[in-house]
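Design review, sub-item: ligand-bound model
Attendees: FS, YL, KQ
YL presented the inputs for the magnesium ion complex:
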Amino acid sequence: MEQHQLQTTSPPLLTIRGLQTQFTSARGAIKAVQSVDLTIAAGEIIGLVGESGSGKSVLALSILRLIQSPGRITQGQVFFAGRDVLTMSKRELSTWRGRDIGMIFQQPQGSLNPVRRIGWQVAEPLRQQERISRKAAWDKAVTLLRSVGIPAPEEKALAYPHQLSGGQAQRVMIAIALALRPRLLIADEPTTALDVTIQAQILELLRDSCRDFGTSLLLVTHDLGVVARLADRVAVMYAGRIVEEGPVSVMLTRPEHPYARGLLDAAPRLGQLAGQRLKDIPGSIPDLSRPMPGCAFAPRCERRAKLELDACVTAPPPFTLIGERHSARCWALPQAEEALPIATVVEDRV
Ligand SMILES: Nc1ncnc2c1ncn2[C@@H]1O[C@H](COP(=O)(O)OP(=O)(O)O)[C@@H](O)[C@H]1O
Ligand SMILES: [Mg+2]
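KQ shared the predicted structure:
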């Protein structure tokens, strides 16, 4: 409760409006991210969930302007602390990413340079950004490696990535990502490649580090236990759109969108979710290169099957505010009328 009040009063660090990212293909444009609205407050942890192919990674990369050809951002805005990210020059972008952003991806070994000692990989960005000597940067790197739980960090700093376990490599990635105390950390399935026992430790490290530094975290994950333990807010993606977003306590117990409900249905109690993965829903994500006049989830939607609403197949549902900082995209939200007679419709940029 306390946390929630804090978040509603702090101004957003990141504001995304109407974001659209598409890939050119022989079959036409693949709309991987569409009409995404999302804000992240300073110090807030957002869990981004959704089945494979729903656009989570493309969204994460779009925020950082790391989308490679044949992909590009075709619409929308991204503001970071009031700065317009989509109009930054290459130079501004690289300074911004270096100073304010940390990134952690699924395969730690793949993100590290195989031929450089890990100590240097942690020290180099410190040396450049803080203009300190090599020796001072090295010492700082060793301290950082210790703080992320690397045993014998003086020796391990001399190691090459292949000499580390997966868990150690991901700790090193966290040390690199947090070395410059970024304001926003983007972690895309950071523990998926690790042993279950290591996962919990790495996630705690991630959460505690973010809390200590006041870093905001956008955490892409498949694991509901992770969401329950770490996130303040949860956004659920489906076929390129955020279909529901709200506080973790609401999202894990009474989500309103049929897709979010289906995914999280199993959620018994917040405390019992450790290691629980998202549920499978019959059917699969639609072809994102085909025109979708209605709701992308309609073909798989039980609610639509029952209610037979025309709107579900003729127009995309708007992102509707259904509670405090809680919105969903569905033409048949059961709670919308009961809970909030004047459901506010947030403009939908198609
Ligand atoms: N390099 C690419 N070229 C073409 N299409 C892509 C590319 N990367 C992603 N996509 C499209 O974007 C969709 C979403 O991908 P992604 O964001 O990686 O999903 P998620 O991370 O949720 O599993 C994919 O299903 C695919 O259609
Ligand atoms: Mg992904």
